[in-house]
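Notebook entry, structure prediction.
Reason for the run: the old model in the group folder had no record of what sequence produced it. Starting over properly, with the input documented here first.
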Amino acid sequence: MKKILAVILAAVFSAALCVAASAQFSLDRLNINANTLTTMPDDPIKTADEVKIAVGDKLYILGWAMNTETNSNLKEVVYTIDGAEKKCADNYRDRPGLCEYFGMADNSLNRHAGFGTDESALELTGIDKLGDGTYKMAIIAKYEDGTTEDLKPEFTLVVGTGENKAEDPTPADPTPSNPDTADASVIAIAAVACIALAGVVVAKKVR
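New structure, fully documented this time:
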């Protein structure tokens, strides 16, 4: 029994080490309207398949990313709304100690690895401008060598009621109209004009 337990524990620790060794990013925080570490709880929405916000709410993130496979530094974090890519504010920092933590001799990937700071999280700029509706969203890390990684794979963002509202139709002309009556009036007027003209012509000939 002890041997079996030892084997299980060894497997668990090995798996944990493998996860740590291959980790290239950490989305530490994703919060609504809170933008400092002290006001940003470790909210489960960062892993949720659906995030609900009110119209005008803002989303902020904190974390880090580096591509250890291609040895490339983080360039920027972007997000997509229904497939359209959106840029965020230029709010990054170095993260000393990351490479050392993962046992990497070269610590150059620490540079520019952090997005947001403890005093000012990275805002997903433009979220507060979204109208009432339901959107498909993803948060993506882009590296200097052109590679990318999903910090949060595509999920559903519900804004307000979540109902996409169509644009208001063009207001109807307040003037009542009756096409059939209007056409008949035009014909009648034209007929009267023709008769009057014919009368004038006949009168001239008689003279």
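Summary: The longest strand covers residues 148-159.
The old model has been moved to the deprecated folder.
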